[in-house]
Amino acid sequence: MDSVYVLIVSKGHDYDHNRFLAMFADMPGVTATLVEQPAAQVVLKPEHVGNYDCVLFYDMSGIPGIGLLHDGAGDTGLPPDDYRASIEALVERGSGLVLLNHATVSWPLWPLWRRISGSSFMLQSGELDGETVPGSGYRGGHGPHPNPTLKLVPQCEHPVLKGLEDGFEITDEIYLKTAGFEQGVTPLMRGDYDFVAENFTPPPLAPPEEQANWNHPPGSDLMVWAHTVEASPVVASDVGDGPTAFDNPNFRKLLENALKWVASPEARD
Asked: What averages of pLDDT result for each successive group of 10 residues across the chain (269 residues)?
């Protein structure tokens, strides 16, 4: 493959556009095009998206109560019918997908998006895989506590981890998720950090009573993983929120590897 053509879907969450896009400009063999929600819903239609080898989701869309204000894509927790059909067609076609950070919580009431992300991140308490679980904690980002610094440690040999075999340190926003989601994914990198409630902030979009009484059992330290949805290879990463990640050469390498891998025939096979 001479060049990987990447469609980036964004909006719904503040970020440093220039430093984010600088990552892709410096990736040899990667040609990236960014489209924001809700215009992304047009570009992702089957008749248009075939021009791209993979899709990177960096949006936080369809969040109840705030979606219309933040991204214009809706606020019901579910996507419009035509966008739902486009994403269903995308995974049936086997398009490679990469999800960064807050993209894993888009469309929180849509089961297919939960399957695509592979994550157990919850914006507030609710049912997950037949069990009631608390809302997920977060640390850093736009919250009251600074981004933590931790080491990401590889868990296997994998094309996404090529050149990162020793792991690397990163300073970025992280999440406190339940551990059960690991059963359905391939662990790629774990975080050397203490994933307990005392180190995290309550979920900011949860009702005030839940925030005031929030607690969470010790959570998963898995921060980068791979899996498949229908015919699509997927890589998801909790890290990737802000400039301290964008400027990190090892994170850039991780992202470049992920984009090239999900776009490859080997990943689809």
From this structure: 90 93 96 96 96 97 76 83 97 98 95 96 93 95 88 98 98 94 94 97 93 96 98 98 97 98 95
Handedness of CA 50, 113, 185, 20 (dihedral sign): positive
Phi, psi of 15, deg, nearest 5: -160, 165
Total-model pTM: 0.96
> b or e along 102-139 (b: 16 or more beta carbons within 10 Å of the residue's beta carbon)?
bbbbbbbebeebbebbbbbbbbbbeebeeeebbbbbbb
Q: Which residues contact 125 (CB under 8 A, 6 or more apart)?
A: 132, 133, 134, 135, 206, 210
In one-letter notation, the amino acid at residue 222 is L
Angstrom distance (rounded) from CA 186 to CA 136? 21
Q: Cβ(11)–Cβ(37) under 8 Å?
A: yes
SS3 239: coil
Q: Pick the closest to residue 115 from 57, 62, 185 (CA basis).
A: 185
> 220 with 238: CB under 8 angstroms?
no
Residues in CB range of 134: below 8 A, 6 or more apart: 122, 125, 210, 214, 215, 216, 217
- Chain-centroid distance of CA 115 in Å reads 12
For residues 219 and 168, give the distance between their C-alpha atoms in angstroms, rounded to a whole number: 21
* Backbone torsions φ then ψ of 235, nearest 5 degrees: -125, 130
Give the whole-angstrom CA distance, residue 39 versus residue 104.
Answer: 19
